Amino acid sequence: MSSLDLPDILPQKVLHVASLVLLAWVTWCVWAYTTSPLRKYPGPYLAGWTNLWRFYHVLNLDSHLVVARLHEKHGPVVRIGPNLLSLKDPALIKTIYKYQDDWVKTKFYHGGSTRNFAGKPIFNVFGLSDREDHARVRKPIGRLYSPAGALAIEKHVDKAISQFLAQLDQRFVNGPNAGVVCQLEQWFLYYAWDVVGDITFSQPFGYMKHGRDFDGTLADSEMAMNYFAAVGQIPLMDFAGAQNPLLKLISKAPFTTANAIARGHLVNRLAGNDKDKHDPSIPDFLDGFIEAQKLYPEVVCDGQIQSYLLINLIAGADTTAISLSSAIYFSLKHPSVWARLEEEVLAADLPDDDPASYKQARTLPYLNAVIRESMRLHPGVGMHLERYVPAGGLRLPDGSLVPAGSMVGMNPYIVNRTVVFGNDSGEFRPERWLQSPGERTEEYEKRLVEMNDAELSFGAGSRICGGRHIASLEMSKLIPTLIRRYRIELVNPDEEWVVKKGWFMRQTGVNVRLQRR
User: Fold this and answer.
1) Can you tell me whether residue 334 is helix, strand or coil?
2) pLDDT at res. 192
3) How far apart are alpha carbons 35 and 401 in whole angstroms?
4) How far is the C-alpha of 456 from the C-alpha of 87, rounded, in Å?
5) DSSP 362-428
6) What is the pLDDT of residue 1?
7) How far is residue 219's CA from residue 84's CA, in Å, rounded to a whole number?
8) Between 275 and 69, the higher pLDDT residue
9) Residues 164 and 187: beta-carbon distance below 8 Å
10) Helix or strand or coil: residue 76?
């Protein structure tokens, strides 16, 4: 052996190998950057080199604002990753999301998958990339999320609304608690999660009863969705994070709590252990999922039912709470809007003490305009809905060709504020959804179609949000019920709310006082 023994040689070899790896990586980055067909599109210099740019801004909870400013500076096409373009032109929605089956979801969506009882990963309805696979998994349960399916669970929602009103009375209105400040966005979250529990397996979680996140599920869900949003920017990070077997030994994986809840309720229902809490004459989603298993056994295994349940839990509450908060906050910040909304609701033939029916609420045009406008201006989701460009590429309105294999995406927060909605698209104006004085009916109908086609609040096409009819039912019933029961005012009308955007566009600061009418 030479005068250099093994301990002296090893560090040199490790350093040599590391240097070669670093050199190869830098060489690849330079080659990829200089030869990329997306280099011609404007965007942050760093974003052209690495996805760490967008990863940072998602972690910083400001990506929607940063990319919106980039579009204001550069126009309808902005490069926000080495292989990702952000598109703003709503005319492209039909191409990318609606009519063609070959626009496949990217790996961004895979982070929300669950695992069956054997530990095998199951991509849920939301995360499935292939449209045929999505249609196959979606078909057995599609009727449950239809308008008729939403009406079928209205009794569950009525029960939750009644409990919500009782808790508001007790904590913020009656006796010594009269005038206590209500953090309404937090209580909407408790309400929405308890609704999800009731409509899914006939058992509310109990957040309204406790008045807090008593079991930590809401905090776990928020952390999981923020993780999902962040690692989706660099999907390989998931293997160093949630999929890392070493990390699993010392920390919970994202969605662990929600998965455990879903699995527990499925096991109890199949074993008949929840008969004291579940009335079969008032069916819930779990009843529907089990029925789907009987009709489609080749598709719906127990693991797939668990996946269906998980989607209800992680996607069915937060967006509804966000939209409810937006509707109340924006309306109160615009006194003329609130006055008109109050006038319409108070003049309507609605019950004073019981929840308004969905059928009744849908007859109130200004209420529905307020809900539409709130969701347009502040959608529940503020991330890019990514797709792979299929064979043949994408011809943009400027004539340039985005090659196949590239990724493109549109952000609802950005697209919902385009000029299609008017020159004041950044302002809250529910009247834009109604026929204007002097506007011919055909002109209004044409304008409404254009706005409907340009809005991405629920997504678009075959991958549109499955729970949109249920969310509409929850919001349309609760808002007029609150207005008929309470006088509502912001504690400080001059203060702005705070938006924390991970995957969801969460808000804080909707602080109100309530007084019984």
Assistant:
1) coil
2) 98
3) 15
4) 13
5) TT-HHHHHHHHHHHHHS-SB-S-EEEE--TT-EE-TTS-EEPTT-EEEE-HHHHTTSGGG-TTTTS-
6) 47
7) 31
8) 69
9) yes
10) coil
332 and 491 Cβ atoms separated by less than 8 Å: no
Cα angle vertex 9, ends 7, 13, to 5°?
Answer: 125
pTM for the model: 0.91
Domain presence at residue 389? no
pLDDT for 100 equals 67
**pLDDT higher than 60, residue 41:** yes
Structural domain for 355, as ranges: 113-380+457-516
Domain count, the chain: 1
In a domain, 313, yes or no: yes
- The three state secondary structure string of 443-491 is HHHHHHHHHHHHCCECECHHHCCCCHHHHHHHHHHHHHHHHHHEEEEEC
CB 121 within 8 A of CB 115: yes
Distance CA 108, CA 130 (A): 13
Bind-site residues for heme: 465
* Count of Cβ atoms closer than 10 Å to residue 101 Cβ: 12
Residues belonging to the binding site are 465
Asked if the model's pLDDT at residue 112 lies above 80, the reply is no
* Rg of the chain (C-alpha set): 25
User: Longest Cα pair distance anywhere in the chain, in angstroms?
Assistant: 97
What CATH number did the domain enclosing 266 receive?
1.10.630.10
Q: What's the mean pLDDT when you consider all of the chain? A: 91
Q: What is the dihedral of CA 203, 209, 213, 216, to 10 degrees?
A: -40
The residue to which tokens 């919970």 are assigned: 252
Residue 381 has pLDDT above 70, yes or no: yes
